[in-house]
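Hey L., structure's done. Input below.
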Amino acid sequence: MIKVEPVSILKFIATHFGIIRDLYETQKNERLIKREIFEIICSRNNAEGIRKQLFDYKIIKPVQEDYELRDIYFNLIEFLLYEFRPLLPDEIEKYGVAISELFRKIKEGINGDKNILLDRLSALSYQIKEFSESIDRNKIRLLSETRNLKANVNKIDYREKIQKASFWTEHYILPLNKILDVNHSESIANRLFAISEYANHIRLTLTEETIRNEFEKLYFQLNQTNDELLLQSKILLNELIPLIDRIRTESLVLTGWLEFIKNPYKSESPKLFKTERLTPISSKFNLNCKEYFEQFTETEDVFIEENLTEVNRWIFNKSLFKQNLVSSLPVDDFFEWCKLSLLDQGELTNEKLLSLTTLLFEEELVISNSAEAESTKIQTNNSVFILPKIIVQNNEI
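Output:
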């Protein structure tokens, strides 16, 4: 038991945050803090005087001959530094098992012991909160990893980029998307939706006030959680998965070979080398020469008439339009912005409109679909386009 004021522990952490951060970084990379590394960190930070306090305040605990930060402090430093470890979907599924089991027992004991029912409702609320926070941490880490991969911060070659992109997609992004798919019967999001409907029914029909209030709290918590999960799912579908797909299709040739290597027996492999015997002179060389010179035996008068009609050719100044778009961010309807920008350039044509759509592929911009199911109608000189509303924002990376 810690016989010290909580504020003293917080002051200790704030005063000696440097050594605690070094211990955190070591444990994050090595899983444990080796005894010799612990000694080096203490010596480097002149922490000989506070070594005893690290153990008295229960910040460090021994693990055989080594040490480790207690989970509560490790999670605190992880949150402060915003360096979340990506959780495997298998780890997140444990919340689904706990939530399902608690929900089953709540339904079975709805008319049973009141105190047990209240404890189960409290435990269910805690598990839902833990699940939502773990999803949020995973989203933050996956966004960071995929954006760094797209920007190639570590200057890795394309083959390694493809391997990393495939790794994040296969083991994290797609399984996480399945967990958040409310339409999937086995997903945690689907279970939470079912619990929300049950809680809403109980809060409206139960007469016992204390339990009814707890079900009402649970219902409103689930409403907020379901909205947050829907937002996380949209980020996965609209940003993470398209970003990974762009990384994997940067080189069409290499991507094609990677797909072929995954399943080499699906189609017959092409013949890469084929030997042929060729001569430097064609067998029809004489006939070709005769035909060539015969065309000059008889010549006809040729009259060249210059076309004096001036054509005003429109040249797409990409840098100028990009600058105008960036200065207008955020743009709620990209194609409406294109229409207004092109009307200042004279006649609105298909060529001009299609040229401006290339701005959507600029890395400085982040695009997303509008939540409203509306469209924009644009009429050019010879066509009518029905286009979705696209939101363009600045990429903060």
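Residues 209-248 form the longest helix (40 residues). DSSP finds 15 helices and six strands in the chain.

-- N.
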